[in-house]
Amino acid sequence: MTRDKGSVRGLVLGKKKSLSVLEGLGFRVGQALGERLPRETLAFREELDALKFLCKDLWAAMFQKHMDGLRTNHQGTYVLQDNSFPLFITMGSGSQYLEEAPKFLAFTCGLLCGALHTLGFQSLVTASVAALPACKFQVVIQKY
């Protein structure tokens, strides 16, 4: 069975749209979680404090564990490391599973972005996976 270029292109566009929808859902959930936070929590003035909150409190609320690492270049870019991402624990470790990883990460990227939005920070969140079950989230705080 062969496919023409048009149908392959349609599959790629459909996959991107699906990931965009998942990210949008995650953003709304992140906003909703942020709106339910105590008012004193919403008073973060420093980016680093907000990211620490995400790594400890928000991550614990969502996944019953803390993020394993947080690094920054002190210029608005942060890397959050989870060595045993709960949504990947039950997945196998083969390369075929790496192709499915973005489906799980799109929602979580949106979640982080939405929570940061509620905390008063505009951000761009991307994720990467080198080996399951670990993943990294790169958060870039937008400066205006």
How would you explain this protein's 3D organization?
The chain is α+β, with helices and mostly antiparallel strands and 144 residues long. 49% of the residues lie in helices and 16% in strands. The protein is built from 4 helices and 4 strands; from the N terminus they run ααββααββ. It has a 4-stranded antiparallel β-sheet, with helices on one face. A hairpin with a 6-residue loop joins strand 3 and strand 4. The chain is globular, with a radius of gyration of 16 Å. The chain starts with a helix and ends with a strand. The N terminus is likely disordered.
What secondary-structure arrangement, pairings included, does this model have?
Layout: H1 5-35, H2 47-63, E1 69-72, E2 77-82, H3 95-98, H4 101-118, E3 123-128, E4 135-141
Antiparallel strand pairs: 1-2, 2-4, 3-4
Helix pairs in contact: 1-4
Protein name: Trafficking protein particle complex subunit 6A isoform X2
Organism: Microtus ochrogaster
Family: Belongs to the TRAPP small subunits family. BET3 subfamily.
- Describe the main β-sheet briefly: 4 strands, antiparallel
Structural class: alpha+beta
Mean pLDDT: 82
Distance between the termini: 52 Å
Radius of gyration: 16 Å
Strand order in the largest sheet = 1-2-4-3
Subcellular location: Golgi apparatus, cis-Golgi network
Protein name: Trafficking protein particle complex subunit 6A isoform X2
Family: Belongs to the TRAPP small subunits family. BET3 subfamily.
InterPro entries: NO_sig/Golgi_transp_ligand-bd (IPR024096), TRAPP_component (IPR007194), TRAPPC6/Trs33 (IPR037992)
